[in-house]
Hints:
Layout: E1 19-23, H1 28-39, E2 43-48, H2 51-63, E3 68-72, H3 78-92, E4 97-100, H4 115-143, E5 146-150, H5 154-157, H6 163-183, E6 189-195, E7 198-199, H7 201-209, H8 213-222, E8 230-231, H9 232-243, E9 254-257
Parallel strand pairs: 1-2, 1-4, 2-3, 4-5, 5-6, 6-9, 7-8
Helix pairs in contact: 1-9, 3-4, 4-6
Amino acid sequence: MTESHSLAGGAGPILAERVAVVTGAAKGIGLGCARILGAAGAAIALWDIDEAALNSAAEQLRSQGIKAQPFIADVSQSSAVDAAIAAIAGEFGKIDILVNNAGTHDGKGIEEADEADWSRIIDTNLKGVFLVSKAALPHLKETRGAIVNMGSMVGLVGQGKSGAYSASKGGIIAMTKNLALDLAPYGIRVNCICPGWVETPLVNQWFALQPDEAEARAYVDSIHPLGRIAAADEIGKAALFLASDLASYVTGVAIEVDGGVTLGY
Ligand SMILES: NC(=O)c1ccc[n+]([C@@H]2O[C@H](COP(=O)([O-])OP(=O)(O)OC[C@H]3O[C@@H](n4cnc5c(N)ncnc54)[C@H](O)[C@@H]3O)[C@@H](O)[C@H]2O)c1
């Protein structure tokens, strides 16, 4: 059987006419995802809490010919999430793709973290995926859309000094599989990306805190078999695959995009 779909035979951009919501899109991996999905033809709802960075990201994307609109909301606050989804649906008329990317890391293990630290990380990284996915669901049902969650290699192999972060990322991987099962009857695919180290403001802050930044960068590059950490756009390319019809038969997977850092022992 020959299948005909929007990306075969040069029929136009892969995501033409699609609307994508990207959380945590003002910088880092979220901005990389927004840029790659936008370059593939999608209109982008850029979602973040950092208003200044969000506006500058929207300007940057528009200057590259991408239709991008900023929305300010905290993914861990249900009333703000519901209002943002309503505003996005009002602006764009539909939602085809949701990239649940917003997240943060505090570098704290069980001895350093207190209850407030635990709640902040879990609420942003994990509860945020629940709240945004739930609010977007009626729209994704209408479009038989796709969700891409941002996990981490940390959710697969763990990481020292990151108790709540590790738990949140492991939770995202498990939740991806739950959502894939629950939403398959609606034609909604749900997948997860597990990046290794990626060059972003979050990672650059960590490098800056190390006693010898250059040595830390060289070490982190060296633990990746491909010899370097990722650029944000390289994670965006995986998001494009999972969000597009290229992955029409892929659901419930956690895909490592990590330069091989989780290989070997
Ligand atoms: N950088 C890496 O090496 C790496 C590796 C694996 C996974 N990740 C994951 O990728 C995602 C993005 O990481 P990054 O490195 O680009 O981080 P970043 O800090 O550079 O960017 C994250 C963005 O999310 C926004 N954000 C934070 N909390 C928010 C909230 N409550 N509501 C809305 N927006 C919020 C921030 O304002 C920021 O713009 C995170 O989920 C992170 O855990 C990052």
